[in-house]
Write a structure and sequence with these properties.
Layout lengths: L2 H4 L5 H4 L8 E4 L9 H10 L4 E3 L7 H8 L3 E6 L11 H9 L3 E4 L2 H13 L4 E3 L8 H4 L5 E4 L6 E5 L6 E9 L5 E2 L7 H7 L2 E9 L2 H5 L14 E4 L17 H12 L3 H8 L7 H7 L1 H7 L3
Parallel strand pairs: 1-2, 1-8, 2-3, 3-4, 8-10, 10-11
Antiparallel strand pairs: 5-7, 6-7, 8-9
Length: about 300
């Protein structure tokens, strides 16, 4: 089969076209690092509703934007925040208003739930450390007492977490879906294995020979990937490690919009009505973007 026929490269709108209302969605990255924000913005443009969001243990901006866009029905939560900028304001308002269903969990529950789904396990058994917290009380649908058949002790069982769709951003990818992150791994391989469909966004599309020359550097293997989207500045205004740093000024601009409950105006200015991220990147300008580059 020719390389042309194997190609998974396609525009973002085509890649996410199959995502329907009510889908379970996860996005890779941690805090502002390697978050696939270009794919999230495309999802917002598509107008999908009633999503169930399974965020990575430390995240904020992409979830806050989806909440502001009215796209979220249910949200698993360990941490949703804006890192050095404090609260994720749309998240806070949605929780206080009761407009989103919250499943309160901790980081190990999300990580181990994804690993369980990746391995086809029916549940995860953990030591009963959660009895020292209120999590079993506030999320009884997640934490269940079971008996360890080997010791007779009581342990806590939590369910697998299997997203329908995963968005993952990397620095480099080939047309076959093999992706390489330059900033270490943040559960990308686990997320990909746990999810039914994986969309990879990449700063640069390289020849497959670049990937095969250093196969141990592959972060996400192409066999798990359904679509590849070429997205320069696909993590902007966050950072893509090894490629560019985060744009603090733009992140603070977003936070100001969100704090004043004006995120709808932010989305109207930078997301809706734009051909991809052209408006957003044009607003930053070539000099500002060049200053973020890591050389």
């Amino acid at each position: 089969m020719s390389a042309q026929r194997r190609s998974k490269l396609m525009p973002a709108a085509e890649a996410i076209a199959g995502i329907q209302d009510g889908a379970k969605v996860i996005a890779g990255g941690v805090h502002f690092s390697n978050t696939p924000l270009a794919l999230v913005r495309e999802l917002i443009r598509r107008g999908v509703r009633d999503l169930e969001i399974i965020p990575t243990p430390a995240t904020g901006l992409w979830v806050d934007m989806l909440l502001a866009a009215g796209a979220v029905r249910k949200l698993w939560v360990s941490y949703i925040g804006m890192e050095f900028m404090g609260l994720a304001h749309n998240f806070r308002r949605a929780v206080e208003a009761g407009t989103v269903e919250i499943v309160d969990v901790d980081e190990p529950t999300i990580f181990l739930g994804l690993r369980a789904a990746a391995g086809g396990l029916p549940f995860v058994a953990m030591p009963p450390i959660h009895k020292l917290t209120d999590l079993p009380k506030v999320s009884p649908q997640v934490y269940r007492d079971i008996v360890d058949p080997f010791t007779g002790r009581t342990v806590i069982a939590t369910p697998p977490l299997a997203p329908d769709w995963a968005f993952i951003h990397v620095a480099k990818a080939d047309v076959n879906g093999n992706g390489v992150s330059l900033g270490g791994r943040h559960m990308e391989d686990v997320i990909a294995k746990a999810s039914k469909h994986v969309i990879l966004s990449a700063e640069e599309i390289v020849d497959p020979s670049v990937i095969t020359a250093a196969p141990t550097h592959t972060t996400v293997p192409g066999v798990l990937v359904e679509a590849v989207v070429h997205t320069p500045y696909g993590a902007y205004p966050g950072t893509c490690p090894g490629v560019y740093s985060y744009d603090r000024a733009h992140l603070e601009e977003y936070s100001d919009y969100a704090k004043d409950d004006r995120t709808a105006a932010y989305l109207e200015r930078y997301v809706y009505g734009s051909l991809g991220d052209r408006v957003l990147l044009d607003a930053a300008g070539p000099e500002r973007l060049a200053a973020l580059e890591l050389k």
